[in-house]
Design goal:
- A hairpin with a 5-residue loop joins strand 6 (94-108) and strand 7 (114-120).
- The chain has 180 residues and is of the alpha+beta class.
- The protein is globular.
- It is built from four helices and eleven strands.
- The longest helix has 13 residues, at 166-178.
- Strands 1, 2, 3, 4, 6, 7, 8, 9 and 10 form a nine-stranded antiparallel β-sheet that branches. A two-stranded antiparallel ribbon has the order 5-11.
- It has a single domain (3-178), classed as Sandwich (Jelly Rolls), CATH 2.60.120.
- One of its GO terms (cellular component) is nucleus.
- Its main location: membrane.
């Protein structure tokens, strides 16, 4: 089961858990109120999983690929890791399904505080368009993930500040509506 918590302010190794003391856990309901959708799937059978097939059909995820993030597998590894960890948003939802390994997605809450979401094998997450976020490996330094898209993939990340994009404005409207 996915675990999430508010991060401490430490600037040390981004791959460390960075839990506050005492730990401030974040529930799936709190993530949902931020527009983050979590699912648990059978990563051992992703190629034939009827649940994944149904999610792809219902959500119209027509394109997918698989990426391995490890120093021996990803070209320009160090540069990519730094890029993934830059705070950014996308104009489309970001959907990631962890097939092997583990890592962290960090998202901003409504008060601009970082929440760390620990992802491991079998976890699928959808981050809504317009949410500020970042990704890093954890101390295991390895993840194999499926990336899913509606239509052709768009890889563009807009580093913060990117508040003038319609996707960000729509996301902020969603947060305001969730607060009421």
């Amino acid at each position: 089961m996915v675990e999430a918590w508010y991060m401490d302010e430490s600037q040390e190794d981004q791959r460390a858990p960075h839990r506050q003391r005492p730990n401030r856990a974040v529930s799936l309901e709190q993530l949902r109120r931020l527009g983050v959708v979590y699912r648990r799937l059978d990563a051992d059978n992703y190629e034939t999983d009827p649940c994944l097939k149904e999610i792809r059909r219902v959500e119209n995820y027509s394109w997918m690929d698989i990426v391995t993030i490890h120093k021996d597998k990803l070209p320009n590894y160090e540069e990519k890791i730094k890029t993934f960890y830059e705070e950014h948003l996308h104009l489309d939802d970001e959907i990631r399904y962890i097939l092997e390994g583990s890592g962290y997605f960090d998202v901003r809450d409504k008060d601009d505080k970082w929440i760390r979401i620990s992802m491991e094998k079998g976890d699928m997450i959808t981050l809504p368009a317009g949410i500020y976020h970042r990704f890093t490996l954890d101390e295991n330094n390895y993840v194999k993930a499926m990336r899913l898209f509606v239509g052709e993939p768009v890889w563009t990340a807009y580093n913060r500040p990117a508040d003038d994009f319609p996707a960000r404005k729509q996301y902020m409207k969603f947060l305001a509506e969730e607060a009421h």
